[in-house]
Specification:
This protein is α+β, with helices and mostly antiparallel strands. It folds into three domains: 63 residues, Rubrerythrin, domain 2 (Single Sheet), CATH 2.20.28; 197 residues, no CATH class; 171 residues, no CATH class. Helices cover 18% and strands 38% of the residues. It contains nine helices and 24 strands. Strands 1, 2, 5, 6, 7, 8, 9, 10, 11 and 12 form a ten-stranded mixed beta sheet that branches. Strands 17, 18, 19, 20, 21, 22, 23 and 24 form an eight-stranded mixed beta sheet that branches. Strands 3-4-13 form a three-stranded antiparallel beta sheet, with no helix packed on it. The model has no long low-confidence stretch (mean pLDDT 91). The chain binds zinc ion (2 copies). The site of one zinc ion has 8 residues, from loops.
Length: 471
Amino acid sequence: MEIAITCPQCGAEVDLAEEDTVFRCLYCGSTLKPTGRNRVQSFFISPRETAQKVGRALIHALKSKGPRELHISEHHLLYAPYWRVNGMIFQWLFGRRYFNTPNGDRSWEDLKKLRATPWVHTFPAFDASKWSLFSLGLRVQALKIWPFNRAKMGQDSLLLRQTISFKDAADHAKKSITKQAASASVQIEMAISELIGERYSLLYFPFYCFKLSNNGRKSMLIVDGLSHKVIKGEVNVDNLKSNTSGGNIPYRPMNFLPYCCPNCGWEFSFRPHTVIHFCKSCCSAWQEHGGRYVSVPYRISLDDNPIEKNKYLAFWRLSLVIKAPDREYGTVKEFYELFPLPRLLDQEALKDRKISFYIPAFRIRNAIIVDTFASRLTKMQPTFNESQPDSIEELDLSDVWLQLKEAKEMAHVLLYSMTKATHRRTKEVVKGAHLHITETRLLCLPFTERGIYLREVQTDLALQRNALDLD
Ligand SMILES: [Zn+2]
Ligand SMILES: [Zn+2]
């Protein structure tokens, strides 16, 4: 979806891609940071054609079926709110897959499967029990949307009141993603589903309501404002007309911040896909939250002797305790009870170290490959030489796509990723475990390019370059 934005500097209308975090005006060149993109925002969609034109076509179609006296006595543009939720589903399934052996016996094997797919869902944010349009479907993906604006929507237009709260919507989404494809040959023992990078928007979708009159008999028709198809629905137009409270702007309107460091005033480099902006002048890092910039502490593991220019990829490192119902796993030594390494380690050195999970924060293209990498890196429990350098000007820092809040959800997915399908005891612990996060840090690790791979300098772990989405 493209968001039609009015440039606050010159007033021109410019499209902003839905995933973009920075706005640049094509006309006056100003670069600004739209606020609230990580919160719920409200938009509207414009109808196609005028009520008069749609009404004429409707009457024409109805008259061809008989009633000669039919005419439209009243028409209204009506907006109904729909929730739109999009993100990326990560779902781990553990269980048994049953199959027939060549000699006809029934047998099974351990199953471990990751599904990682983009997910988009729209559903009514109003009481839709008498409404037939339950989803806006895929067509909204290609539409242009406008920030909620009563004047632009038409002062006479009517609004259906939003009754499904954000919390209800989030519950609904959660329920939808945890559904597992049932299958006769698969038995699920444990599963986890997380929606990552999710964004909730309230879309006000247009309908036309026509009050029809035929020889004194009155009726009402509701027409989809884009497809112009008649839909089943009931609205009390008189009620909506007298009750204009639906016109309060739901949720925050979009505002703009200057696209520069709040500490030193240096303009950030133009990176429209990053949620965290590094200041190349004073080395601080910033994130927009609640309409202002908030400082983000970070560390960089510098490669002092680079063979060639490194690429620094961002990770969230979460220090945590794995809490199972009967015991806790808080040290690296205890971590290896769950996720043993083939080689021997110095047990003494491990018993004082805290467990760290490494969650990739850069943009990814192939979630499964990146998940495998994160799982291998975390199983190594490496320690890095890290600092906040005095100069980052020369460093090639990746965009940060994943917010800390989402990294925390991802940590649970990673716990499943590290669990072997055949490892019964670990599965039992993981199934009932929750993660108690004690410390978080954004950490940039150096990678060197080797053919189709990027290799992390210290651990030498390789990541296929095309699994990443780097600018
Ligand atoms: Zn402009
Ligand atoms: Zn600065």
